[in-house]
Amino acid sequence: MSFNSLQDILDRSAGFDNDIFEAVINDDMSERSVAREESFGKMRHMWLSMKNSFENHDDSIKSASGLVGGDAFKLKKYNEQDSLCGNFLIDVMACAVSVAESNACMKCIVASPTAGSCGVMPGVLIPYKKRFDESDEHIIKSLHVAAGIGEVIAQRAGISGAQGGCQAEIGSASAMAAAALVYLKGGSSKQVMNACALALKNMLGLSCDPVAGLVEVPCVKRNASGAVNAVMAADMSLAGIESIIPPDEVIDAMGEIGAIMPPSLKETSRAGLAATPTGLKIAKEQKHFI
Q1: Residue 212 contacts by C-beta under 8 Å, 6 or more apart in sequence?
Q2: Is 195 a residue whose pLDDT tops 70?
Q3: Does the global pTM surpass 0.90?
Q4: N or C: which terminus of the chain has fewer CB atoms within 10 Å of its end residue's CB?
Q5: Is residue 166 part of a domain?
Q6: Considering only CA atoms, which of 205, 210, 215 is closest in space to residue 275?
Q7: How many structural domains does the chain have?
Q8: C-alpha triplet 73, 126, 199: angle, nearest 5°
Q9: In the prediction, which pLDDT does 288 show?
Q10: DSSP assignment letter at 167
Q11: Does position 247 have pLDDT exceeding 80, yes or no?
Q12: Contact (Cβ atoms closer than 8 angstroms) between residue 221 and residue 97
């Protein structure tokens, strides 16, 4: 895509009755020289793959390391009770963890924007579809919106944990998901961008400190956090709350934080949770994975 900023997306969407989806899909058509049907069809495939990664999740399996598996099932069972968060948010958590567990168990997932953050987008969109009986077509449009935002984040700040910490992975995914939710709820283009900024601000500084070098602990459960954060940011934006710091500046701040974050907290497993006594013990037990 050719967008240099979120403001660029807003400016171009003005030519499409302020519809961000139209701005993004037309940009994709131009950049890749494809027809509208091909652009939409590719995103449809992504959406179906996201749904499959959730629907084909096996509650009984564990990852090869034995560190991941079974937590999504616990959330599903817990949702039969009167939970603190309510059924929708527990559904969001369960879905996000299910997909992230599938990733740890080497199942097919959609990197959105990365494999480590693969549970966030389906974590909010699949429960949303269920709760609001949303059409696949509208969901696919929201994925285009999220893709446009993800492209800007990738270009201006980065989406790799090794480059910018977990803020670049779970944070970016949460921002994309929040924007998609606001689009689905009929929020304005400005509210879409504010949701992105609000979600990303809550994740600034999040380190990438995977225990034993595996994308499992704390990665899987952070997908649930990122998904719930997206819902919160979307509701705040839809309520009329704005980010005091403009969305593009929030993205730039994330890039700056990632640049000055020590390498030990950027996917090297040399600090943070990975360097705790328990983390080191697990790493020793799992040394054949590193």
Answers
A1: 65, 67, 269, 274, 279, 282, 283, 285, 286, 287, 289, 290
A2: yes
A3: yes
A4: C
A5: yes
A6: 210
A7: 1
A8: 95
A9: 56
A10: G
A11: yes
A12: yes
